[in-house]
Write a structure and sequence with these properties.
There is one protein chain. Helix content is 70%, strand content 0%. By secondary structure, the chain is mostly helical. It has one domain. The termini are far apart.
Length: 152
């Protein structure tokens, strides 16, 4: 299994430069359910310019990756590193629907004992209020579909 994962990651290395945000969003959506997608997300993010948006996705990656780690101490370190990156990105762009959505989707899916859920209702309200303002149809569709899944 590790060999297959390594092979897929190596193959992805040859095709990560210039991967667009739509590919990153797709991998983000798959990552909580598939460790290979999660590791692929990391590779793609490492090979992109470090914009605020990419840093937010890196933060989300760390939090998702913690799900697949065995050592509880390393899990918490990964989670906290990701949380810090995501929060800094949101502080830099507090009106970004996409970044707020990232935080909402993370907070909605993590265990309560991690105590990272204080923005759930305000984030959902912000997203619902501003979603119609998005020009990016693909992102709008991704957020709409994800909200439908998350709020069943």
């Amino acid at each position: 299994m590790r060999f297959i994962l390594l092979l897929i990651l190596i193959l992805n290395l040859f095709d990560v430069k210039g991967q667009g945000i739509s590919h990153i969003r797709d991998l983000y959506h798959k990552s909580p359910f598939d460790e290979i997608a999660c590791d692929s997300l990391n590779i793609v993010l490492e090979n992109n310019n470090k914009t605020n948006q990419i840093n937010a996705y890196i933060g989300a990656y760390y939090m998702i990756k913690s799900k697949f780690l065995g050592n509880p101490i390393i899990k918490i370190k990964h989670f906290n590193k990701g949380k810090e990156l995501l929060e800094v990105s949101i502080e830099n762009e507090p009106n970004s629907i996409e970044l707020i959505f990232l935080r909402y989707s993370i907070q909605k899916n993590i265990p309560k004992f991690l105590m990272y859920s204080s923005n759930l209702s305000s984030d959902l309200e912000f997203i619902e209020k501003n979603l119609s303002l998005l020009d990016d149809i693909q992102l709008k569709e991704l957020i709409t579909n994800s909200l439908n899944e998350l709020n069943k």
